[in-house]
Structures are given as C-alpha cells and as structure tokens.
Amino acid sequence: MALEHHRVVITAAGRDFGRTLALRFASRGAEVHLSARTLEAAERVRGEIRSQGHAADRVHAYACDLTDPASVREFAAAVAARTDHVDVLVNNGSRYQHGTDLLSASDEDVVDTLASGATGTVLATKAFLPLLLKSAKPDIVTMVSGCGETGHHRSDAHDAFYAAKSAQAGFAEILSRRLRDRGVRVISLYPPDFDNHDPLSHAWEGAPRTAKDPLTAQSLVDCVFFAIGQPRDCFIKSFHFEQV
What is the pLDDT of residues 168-216, one digit of tens each? Predict the structure, then answer.
C-alpha cells in the first residue's frame, strides 16, 4: 500500500514501537509528523528516516509531553503551521509501568502512567481532530494493549498501566460511535507482548513469523496498513489477538 498522499502524526515516536511506526510509514511514502518527549529523540528518528532517502520536507520532528496539555496544544499548532490537514493520527504514546504489586509504584509513577496513556490520548485526539476533519480519509489509530481488554490478566504490567489502557479502550469505543457520521474511522489494536525488531536491521525481514512464534511488530504494522487502506465504507474498529 502506497501512502504518498497521507499525512501522518505519530506520538511517542522517539523509540520502540513508535519509532518502528515512523520508519515504516515513511518507507511507504507518507509525510510523517513525529513527536517524542524530547526534541532530541524526535530529531534522532527524523535523521534515521532522512538517511533512508526521505525528503526533508516530508518528515518533521516535534517535542511533546503527553502529560502536559500545553505541550500537546503546541504540538498540534506546530503541525497545523505546516499542513492544512492530517489523514492519520497514531496514538502510540503511553508509559509502561511494570509490577504486579500495586504498592510497587510511587504515586508519581501512577500519575505519569495514567496521564501519558489515558489523558495524553484524549488530549492528542482532541487537539488534532480539527485537522483530521479537514481530511477526505481521516483515521485515528490507537495502540491500546491486551491489558485494555476486559478480563485480561496475563501481563505483569502494573495496575496503573491496566487502568490507563482500559481508559484508552473506553475512549476509543465511544469515539468510534460518535465520529462515524463525520467520516472518521477509529481503529484500536490490542496486542499482547510482541517482538519489536529494528526496521533498519536484517531481523526485520528475517524474523520468524509462524504460529509457534511471538507476535511481531511487522504483523502489527501490517494490521495498521490494512485497516487504513480499506475503502471508506469499511470501518475496522479493532484488532484483538490470541493470548499465548
């Protein structure tokens, strides 16, 4: 699927799966607007994309702290200064917190985990919705987690992470219903733990992807591209995966 005519915003794209998304969207030709908590991290990924031959005016880096409403607004305003619309918003930002004991995390950790995942997703969607509504093909993609599924209990993630992911899931559910009549598709992914191979390494093409292997970032990216590539009458609301 070619994405030359797509303008894509990705939050928390400075590392891990956010970086993977930025690199893969760019490889399909999309104009990418990527954010990270620090501008240095965002610029580093921008440099990697540029080194793959992507034009300078097709990849942009921004600082955005999803726990800070002013920072989210500034991020959206900076993107709006460069483009009159956004086609895809990828809500990837969410701090992970490990630990099965509720008492293992500080109050500050709890607040930051909930703010980055839950509040940050709502604020980013709200800030970019005006630009999405100006697109002929608007999609909102949210990387939730199996932890956001009702009854899920297999992860060693902290209770605060479960709470943040459950909030994302509830937000995406109501948003999907309320934005459908405006032509905005709301797509959520609920993956278990997965292998995130470096898209710039040989492992990306050579990673085993059999029924006996863990889910890969390659498959998650394929799901995103599949969903946004469907005709506009096809609203794929969510992807759920077998827990292993």
Answer: 999 999 999 999 999 999 999 999 989 999 999 999 999 999 999 999 9
Report helix angle 16-27 to 39-51, nearest 10: 40
pLDDT in tens, 82-98: 999 999 999 999 999 99
Task: Give CA–CA dist 23/19, Å, rounded.
Answer: 6
8 A C-beta contact, residue 168 and residue 160 = no
> Rounded to 10 degrees, what is the CA torsion of 11, 13, 16, 17?
60
Report the distance separating Cα 191 and Cα 201, nearest Å.
23
Distance CA 234, CA 185 (A): 9
Q: Decide if 176 contacts 235 (C-beta within 8 A).
A: yes
Measured between alpha carbons, how far is 112 from 5 in angstroms, rounded to an integer?
35
> What phi and psi values does residue 200 have, to the nearest 5 degrees?
-95, 10
CB-neighbour burial class of residue 197 (10 A; exposed 0-12, middle 13-18, buried 19+): middle
Token match 């992970």: residue?
Answer: 96
Cβ atoms of 184 and 138 closer than 8 Å: yes
Rounded-to-integer distance, Cα 3 and Cα 119, Å: 29
Q: Residues 19-23: contacts with CB within 8 Å, 24+ apart?
A: 19/45, 19/48, 20/196, 20/198, 20/199, 20/217, 20/221, 21/90, 21/92, 21/221, 21/224, 22/49, 23/48, 23/49, 23/52, 23/199, 23/200
Mention every residue, 6+ apart, whose C-beta is less than 8 A from residue 164.
94, 95, 113, 114, 116, 117, 118
CA 200 to chain centre: 19
